[in-house]
Structures are given as structure tokens and as C-alpha cells.
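Lab notebook, bench 4. Still working through the backlog of constructs that have no structural model yet. Next entry is a single chain of 455 residues. Request: give me the C-alpha cells for it.
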Amino acid sequence: MKHWLTAMSCALGVSVLAVPVVPAIEIAPVGEGATSVVISGYTFPQDPGEAGKRMEAFAAMVGFVHFHRSGSSLRNDIYHRPIRVPELELALSSPVGQGDLLVAMDLLNGEMAVLSVGGDRAAADPPFTVEGFEAGSSTVTLRGLEPGETCYFISVRPGHWPSYRSLTEGDWADGDAEENGVFELSSALLRSGNPLYVLAGERLLAFSVDDAVPVPVVLESSGTRARQVVPVASHIVGASGVPFVSDLTLTNPVGFRLTGWVRFVREGGTLDGAPSIPFDLEGGESIAWDDVLQTAFGITDNVKGTLVVGGVPGWFVQVSSRNYAVDGEGRRFGISIPGLQTIAPLDLEQTWILPGLVEHGAFRSNLVLAGLAPMPSQVTIRIIAGGTVRAEADREVPAYGLLQINRVAHALGAGDVAAGYVELTVHAGGVAAGLSVVDGSADDAAWIEARPMFP
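Model written out:
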């Protein structure tokens, strides 16, 4: 297959030099006048079923930016496209010049390589500082800028194309809306999407366009790299007196090794203090645990909580679980509960609906809320039936933890509901939400995930 990339250009300002970094992805050194670059060391998927065969369904994802002078302005040529070769020689639309900046990104693991041409600025002090680029922060602040200064940003997170922004201090994007040298930016604006706060392990490159010889700042956000959450897992006796347990299956569908961990966060517990087990999956492999809390964690007491899956790059792991019981004749019954990505939570930009609420003598409905954010989330829960709000309550959902409200209609004061729904509004943070509707005649349940009111 012929490999090609697209290029786009836009005028920015002046020349740039870079702070080198040393990740796996590399840009071969180039000098002035070069018309191509060689990029290597990026994640290159292989077919898990046949050694050395490239995967047709999964390519490398490489991003590249060439910042170069064009007259009195700085231009950025942006290239990105799925790549199916282990080493990329890329033709540039403009020859490399003195002071140019080259940035390559491995978008499967989020790594970034930065190369300056004709000058090493590694020892230079950054002209500004960056605060708040850490897990859970909704605002990133730059201090030490000149009033009205323009900055350029590249935001990278594994498995997604990068975001590019050129923004000016004091304009519409500045949270304080003043030309005062302090730039307060929404983290969601930097990356053009969910979640509305920083997740651990994201990378950000920032530099001042207006400096004569700017020094880029390259950052990786701090925090525990929680990537997926199973909203509820248990080793517990249910309302009928039958023990309910959870299994867990992890699958690696991509052609490179995935390593990480699984933690069990007890209801009322925290991620940092949770017991943990490691996993290591080659391409195409799966691993499964029956009664995962007992077989993997050695937990035999009456307990429930969430299962949190993390690692690098943990978003590619496919996670599934069942919460089930075994009757006296050895028959299993229960519900399937998916692992949900922390990168796509229910958040405050939408109203969320859980339809199918039924609660009376024959049925009961349990509301399950799990934190997908690195900080507590604030939510409002409404029980709606017959066209009216029958009950309303505010609750806090722990970071990566479980909030379960059994018989939710009765618990919130709505009484019996023959047919209704739960309306959920998130005021801060991000959550997963599901409704377990249980048929009391057989203790069989249906799992209903929240969906947006406005698709």
C-alpha cells in the first residue's frame, strides 16, 4: 500500500528552539536544508496470530509537526495518518531552517520526541511556568507571560489524534479575560473534548509564539493511570440470601503487549489504598478470573466495590465482567457489566437518562454510580414517573469508587413506581451509571446503562 500523509499550514509568529526529551520514539538528527526526516521507535503493531505479519486492522499512529520560519512568521506543517511501516521517512513541504522545531508523537502510547535544529536549548530556563497540569485539574495556568502574549499548545493522549491550539493571553480563551500575563485555560479546550479535566499520563507541549527564541515546556500529567472501571463487583450475599460474585475478563485485541494492573476499590475505600494485581497480555491474549475477588485478591468477606484497570496504554484493554449467583442446582444467573473508559465519563455537559425504572412488590431497581474521575463527583438524582419528579437528591460519588443505592425509588422517597426513569445531572467530575432492575420472582436482573438525553 502506498503511504502518504496530509499537510496543513498556518501562520504563527517567530522562530522556535526546543527542549529535547528522550522517549522511545525518535527523530533522526537533521541539518539546515533537509527536505525529509526519519522517524522510528514508535509502537508498531504486529499480528498476534503470525509473528512478524503486520495487522491490517491496526496501524501505528504517528503525528508530526514541523515548526519553521517563513519570512517574519512561524508556520506549522502538521502531518498525521495511520502508518503501516516500522520506520517512516517523511517528505517535508518546506526545507528545515535554523531554529526550526520538529515534534513527533507516538499516539498509541502518548510519547513525544522534540528536536531543535541549529541550537540546543535544554539548559535554558522556560520563560513561563505551567501550573495545574495534573490529574483532576480542570484549569491549566501559565504564569510569567507578557500581557497579550500568544502561545502554541500540543496535547497528546494515547489512542487519539493530538490537539493543536494557538491562543492569546487575555482573549476569549483566557479564564480571567485580562491581559495581565496570567493565562488560565480550560483543560478541555486544550484537547478539544472529554473529559473536562486532566487525566494522568497525558502530555502537553507549550511555547510562546512571541518570544524571539522561545523554549517549549514539555509536561506529563501526574496521578495514577486509571483507564477503565467496572462499576460494581461483589462477593456478597444478595437481598434473596443467595451469594453474588463477579468474574472478570481482560482481552488484548492489538498487536503489541499491554501491561497494567487491576485494583479493587471497596465501597467507601480509595484507589491509592486498594489491593492490586498485575497483568501482562501479549497481542491477541485474554485472561479471565471466576469469582475475581476471591481468586485474584483473596477476598472472602461480604464486600462490594469497583474494579479499576490501569496501565500504559490501558485504554486498549477490553474489559468485561459478570455479577452472578449460583442456585442450589448449580445454575448461574446474573448480569453482564462492562468496563467503562475513564476518558469518556458522564459529565456536566449533558443530562443523562436511565430508563426502565420499576419498583414495587415484584421488581426492585438498584442505582449504581461509579467514579470515573480522579476526584469526587457531584451528582443530582431525580426519580421521574407519571410526568412528575417524585424524588430528588444530591450525592457524592468517590473517585473511582462505588455509590450504590438499593431500591432507589423507595430510598429517595418516591415510593412504588410502575414505570419511570432516573434522571442524572453531573455537576462536577465524571461518573459511570447503571440501573440494575431485578425481577424478584427469579432474582434475575437487567443492566441498563445511562444514555444522554440529547444524542
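Notes after review: DSSP finds three helices and 32 strands in the chain. The helical segments are 187-191, 292-295, 408-411. Flag for follow-up if needed.
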